[in-house]
Amino acid sequence: MSRKLIPMAIAYDFDGTLAPGNIQENSFIPTIGMTKAAFWLKNKARAAKHEADEVLSYMTFMLERAAAEDIPVRKRDFAEHGKTVKLFQGANEWFECVNSYAKSKHVKLQHFIISSGIKEMIEATSIGNRFTKIFASSFAYDANGAAKWPALAINYTTKTQYLFRINKGSLSVHDHGLINDFVPHEDRPIPFTNIVFIGDGETDIPCMRLVRDQGGHSIAVYQPGSKTKKARAEKLVHDRRADFIAPADYSEGKPLHEILRAIVDKVAANNAVQIMKRG
Which domain of life is it from (predicted)? Predict the structure, then answer.
């Protein structure tokens, strides 16, 4: 009889975690005639003026600026911007490599995105098809395919909801039934102890802390070569937000691989112990 695979998940932030900077900065913001610094500064002022959520504000600002510059904002246009995104070293090969290692330990590894970035852009990146689900900010479109308003805005506090969705197997964002139902921990598809969160900054702290507090693991990554970002990641470990830090280099043999393999080993060992306890 075949051995049942152990469920495990990695949830990633996207901006600054799998790719440098914010995804809108690669080609969209230059297309609407702004620098990234000017765009985010203006958006912060807009959000403060209206006491608005900064994610909802930036999404609306994107549409307003695009209209002013006569730039099309259909789903396929966002996808074209997504295709320009340059990922961190080794990201394209990471998934096959870690999946293979997990499988050798009888672990079924799934990957998820939880991001404030634009879903339509993330989906179009070279790794967009590697994820079981991409939870990210997205737009609603009219009959002509043009983006009209934000359909979903994910900010740093609402990110934690999607960890519970992964934990409970409630992956449809419009369905609030299962996510609000009581489900015994032992009946949840992916236990928190088998969840890893990988992020890069302060906006990831609620997710990092939740996963750690529930018995899982959090990894803070930083842009290779940046002393400032490394110091920020070290502070996350010092403040007990994250368990590990590593450069955002996903190449085989780098620290991220060593950390992830150690966690997979631990998940497999814990599962073996539980089986022995049950006799």
Answer: Bacteria
